[in-house]
Specification:
Protein name (chain B): Nuclear pore complex protein Nup85
Low-confidence stretches of chain A: 52-65, 302-307
Number of helices of chain A: 0
Function (chain B): Functions as a component of the nuclear pore complex (NPC).
Main location (chain B): nucleus
Shape of chain B: elongated
Subcellular location (chain B): Nucleus, Nuclear pore complex
Oligomer: heterodimer
Strand content of chain A: over 45%
InterPro entries (chain B): Nucleoporin_Nup85
Mean pLDDT of chain B: 82
Number of strands of chain B: 3
Structural class of chain B: mainly alpha
Largest sheet of chain A: 4 strands, antiparallel
Low-confidence stretches of chain B: 1-7
Distance between the termini of chain A: 18 Å
């Protein structure tokens, strides 16, 4: 059982992401970014894992990263709740807000601060012109970002352009909860009706490529992630805490259904180098590590009563 | 103890409203301890004056008892954790193990309090805004007082020393909260000529009064004359002073005997004049002898009467028990006459604690310390309750004191935009009123995004609040309907399983079809699955789509049968019958007869019923619709004729 280090930060954090390494050979990143939600004034913070002030220099053994306490190096106010945060490259990341705006921010190397690159306001809107929350983001390379929102639209923007590259405005009848790029021009999304849909950007936007359903109860699917190696295998997590693995080559129904958590599962991630391992986190306060080679949950870390939002 | 006695100072809020003859102030309750204040016009009863709308109208969100929650949010969150774990332990552990856990919890609370206090000091130091700085400092002061009271209560009520011998704990308490002695001593030691330092003797007296003989001896050793006889004698006496610790397995009687012996020696030496050369040393030994008068002289080194009380007890009666404390209070207080009103309040609370009057402590703390937050009284009362120290008697309010205080704290949390979840967790542990409070509050939490709605639904379902869960689903669905997101609305309404609201959405879908000739949300409608059986309207919708599918695939028989069953079941809303009958038109115009006689009669019957109904009278219909009706009638009649012919004729089969 590995060590867990806990730090209270006095904000509800909705998304937390490690900053990617700038190149493959450098040391593992010690910087991560958090976005908060459900507060009077939400913030985006940059944290750094620094050494604890107590001297541990005389210890010969390896100091694991967990011995360090994260220090907040920068804080920036943000309008609306942070609903998704994804890194585009090792320097820039995009943030989706509940006001319907998408913002791209950049780490400045000189100071440990963030600079604002660009914002698309009212990225998502309802028919009545009121702003819709932008719920998810998916980057393609470091140029394009696809976003989905509560208005059921998928909008694709390129970094330097104000106008969107493409808009799929009748993409979904329900709220899109998560999406990802399957291939260069194919997008996969999950929605609140419990459906998994694929869209081909080259085709006529009025047709979906395929729709898959989980079960008949229509429990909303909240998160998805694709297998790093085999692009036709996808994992999704639902509001009932069920983990589902799909094979997109098969029609309609999922491959495996695993009852996992007792609360809604908010994020699921494959390990980028070891795809047999899968991690899920949920509203019931636990983080589970799944090992595909033995099809059992290997270990579960139960945190305190707090709810887990992101991995 | 009546609930009405817990009334605090009156809080006054000044709001910038324009005074006007026509405008009065009104208010509406928010969540918890929150009021929305606004101005509105006084209606004129006599004549209808045109309502002059004023240009600016603001709504003010007034919250109280919650100032601490933004500034010391970490306190709220960390102690919430401790609280929940403690309640779990109360349920599961046996009495003796529970007792040690309660002590641990009390210490944890104090540790968190201390950490928050230090953080606040750091923030206050780096703050430039004067008014904010003042506020922080007020909070820090309040935290100091709370720590003082809590640690005293811990000694007296929670972590009671065996045998009731509290002096050692009280000395620790003193040393922890009155740090000036140590600070002075450090200053003196680091100066060039310690014994020449003006505060040298003051430092020694202060440490002596706290029972810190080690450091007193160190300071005395720094004196120039430390090699003289008097100094050596004092050093000896100090070294021999017996201390009561738990490690030594001596009984109380033994210790008392030792101590009396030692004191007699002090008195003997003093009267022999061993210290006559140095008046300060005489003072020291007088203290050791427990002489009354000298304590009065040294009252400035004690600063407060409770410090004096403990110091006196140390040197006059070290084996005193908790019950003996009350006798000493009045004499010590008499020595200190005046103090500011704020300190007066604190004194009252401490006095009540030393007199063992727990209820008075809580009552005074409520009055005095709960303006910024009910945190302190509620958590303290909770621990005392589980220790069995708090009277579990029911108040006229309807529940016991602990619950009353927890309810106050939870209510003040509910008004916070983000801490409502913490509030609900506290309400979970209020057995009498908690559930009804949760039921009332959870429906009123503002739902801005779907994610928040999912979270609150989860809260409801965890606690079996099914009515509230259904109502939240309906609210979200109605919001979606207003924004014309029919798909999302349907998915929320399906969750709520309420037939009436689902019918609203399906009616909108059907309307859309009537107007535009096609369905828009096919990805939903085609994939309803078994949930279409929840209500009739959904079943109709799904089956109608099926009819379209049959028709498009060329399955005429299937299409006909389905259409007929749909029409005869009368599932469809009235405005849709016209459309369905029109759907029958292309089928009627097919070369072969697909509708048999009874089916045709069925269609005619439906048409008649439709026309009899006032809404489809000839007067209300447009040109095109009248045309369509005519065509329909012609087609139906023709079909009837053909059908009768077909059915009634006998087929001749030629046998060849």
């Amino acid at each position: 059982m590995t060590d867990i280090s806990v730090k209270f930060v006095s904000k509800k954090i909705s998304k937390i992401r490690w900053r990617p390494k700038s190149d493959v050979k450098s040391a593992p990143s010690t910087i991560f970014v958090t976005g908060s939600w459900d507060d009077q004034q939400n913030t985006i913070c940059v944290w750094d894992l620094r050494d604890r002030i107590a001297a541990s220099d005389d210890r010969d053994d390896e100091i694991s990263a967990l011995d360090h306490e994260p220090q907040k190096t920068f804080e920036m106010p943000y309008a609306g709740d942070v609903l998704d945060l994804q890194y585009l490259s090792s320097n820039t990341f995009a943030v989706a807000s509940s006001t319907g705006a998408v913002t791209v921010l950049k780490h400045l190397s000189s100071s440990q601060t963030l600079a604002h690159l660009c914002t698309w306001d009212k990225h998502h809107q309802f028919k009545t012109d009121s702003p819709a929350a932008c719920t998810c983001l998916a980057p393609r390379g470091d140029e394009w970002i696809a976003t989905g929102g509560e208005d059921g639209q998928i909008v694709i923007v390129a970094l330097e352009q104000r106008q969107p590259v493409q808009t799929l405005d009748k993409a979904d009848s329900c709220t899109i909860n998560d999406l990802t790029f399957l291939k260069q021009s194919e997008i996969l999304s999950v929605n609140s009706f419990g459906q998994l849909k694929t869209f081909d950007l080259r085709q006529d936007p009025k047709q979906h490529a395929q729709i898959f359903s989980v079960t008949e109860n229509h429990t909303p699917l909240l998160c998805l992630d694709k297998h790093p190696g085999q692009a036709h295998i996808v994992a999704t997590g639902g509001e009932d805490g069920m983990l589902t693995i799909w094979d997109l080559r098969q029609e309609k129904f999922p491959m495996t259904l695993l009852e996992a958590h007792t609360g809604a599962m908010w994020e699921v991630k494959f390990h980028p180098h070891n795809p047999n391992h899968l991690f899920t986190c949920s509203d019931d306060g636990s983080l589970w590590h799944w090992d595909g080679s033995s099809t059992d949950a290997v270990s579960s870390f139960t945190g305190t009563k707090g709810k887990k939002h992101s991995i | 103890m009546a609930a009405s006695t817990v009334d605090g100072e009156v809080e006054v809020f000044t709001l910038p409203f324009k005074k006007s003859r026509n405008l009065k102030l009104r208010s509406v309750w928010g969540m918890g301890k929150e009021l929305y204040m606004f101005q509105s016009q006084i209606p004129h009863k006599e004549r209808e004056e045109s309502q002059r709308s004023f240009s600016e109208s603001n709504i003010f969100d007034v919250q109280w008892n919650a100032e601490m929650h933004d500034i010391a949010r970490k306190l709220v969150n960390e102690t919430h954790n401790i609280f929940v774990i403690l309640q779990g332990q109360v349920k599961s552990l046996s009495q003796s193990i529970l007792y040690s856990q309660l002590r641990k919890a009390s210490k944890q609370y104090r540790a968190v309090l201390k950490a928050c206090s230090m953080e606040l000091m750091q923030i206050a130091d780096s703050c430039t805004d004067e008014s904010k700085k003042l506020k922080y400092e007020e909070h820090i002061q309040e935290f100091e007082m709370i720590q003082l009271i809590w640690s005293l209560c811990e000694i007296l009520f929670i972590d009671v020393a065996p045998g009731g011998l509290v002096l050692t704990s009280l000395l620790d308490w003193l040393q922890w909260h009155f740090q000036e002695g140590k600070q002075l001593a450090t200053k003196v030691i680091h100066s060039d000529q310690p014994c020449e330092h003006p505060q040298y003797w003051e430092a020694i007296y202060r440490l002596l009064l706290q029972g810190d003989t080690e450091n007193v001896r160190k300071l005395l050793a720094l004196n120039v004359f430390s090699h003289s006889d008097s100094f050596i004698a004092v050093d000896e006496v100090l070294k021999k002073m017996p201390r009561w610790t738990y490690q030594h397995a001596q009984s109380v009687a033994e210790y008392e005997m030792k101590w009396r012996h030692w004191r007699e020696e002090c008195v003997r030496r003093y009267e022999a004049g061993q210290f006559a050369a140095y008046p300060e040393l005489e003072t020291i030994v007088q203290v050791l002898c427990g002489d009354e008068a000298v304590f009065k002289d040294l009252k400035d080194c004690c600063e407060t009467w409770y410090h004096l009380l403990v110091s006196k007890l140390l040197y006059q009666n070290p084996t005193c028990r908790i019950q003996d404390l009350t006798y000493e209070i009045k004499p010590c207080q008499a020595v200190f006459s005046n103090s500011s009103p704020q300190i007066q309040e604190l004194d009252n609370i401490l006095q009540a604690a030393l007199e063992f009057d727990l209820h008075q402590v809580i009552k005074d703390s409520c009055t005095f310390l709960s303006n910024r937050s009910w945190w302190f009284v509620s958590h303290l009362a909770d621990i005392l309750h589980h220790c069995g120290q708090l009277d579990p008697q029911e108040l006229p309010f309807g529940s016991n004191l602990r619950e009353y205080l927890l309810l106050e704290y939870a209510t003040s949390l509910m008004a916070h935009k983000s801490l409502y979840q913490v509030g609900i967790d506290y309400l979970d542990f209020c057995p009498v009123f908690g559930r009804s409070y949760i039921e009332a509050y959870v429906e009123r939490i503002p739902l801005e995004t779907e994610r928040k709605a999912h979270k609150i639904l989860h809260i409801c379902l965890e606690r079996d609040l099914l009515v509230q869960a259904q109502s939240i689903c309906k609210v979200m669905g109605m919001k979606c309907l207003k924004q014309e997101r029919f798909g999302s609305a349907l998915s929320w309404f399906l969750k709520s399983k309420d037939a009436t609201v689902i019918k609203q959405v399906t009616d909108r879908f059907l309307n859309e079809y009537c107007e535009e000739g096609k369905f828009s949300h096919l990805d939903l409608i085609d994939h309803l699955g078994p949930s279409m059986l929840i209500t009739n309207s959904l079943t109709f919708l799904a089956k109608y789509r099926e009819f379209h599918t049959f028709y498009n695939n060329g399955d005429v028989k299937g299409a006909v049968n389905l259409l007929l069953s749909l029409i005869s079941s009368r599932l469809a809303p009235k405005f849709f019958w016209m459309t369905m009958l029109m759907d029958a038109l292309p089928l009627l115009n097919l070369p072969e007869v697909v509708f048999n006689v009874s089916q045709t009669y069925e269609l005619l019957h439906c048409l008649e019923e439709l026309q009899r109904d006032g809404t489809s009278n000839y007067k209300n219909l447009k040109e095109t619709e009248i045309e369509k009706l005519k065509l329909l009638r012609i087609a139906l009649t023709r079909n009837l004729a053909n059908a009768i012919l077909q059915e009634r004729s006998v087929r001749t089969v030629s046998i060849s």
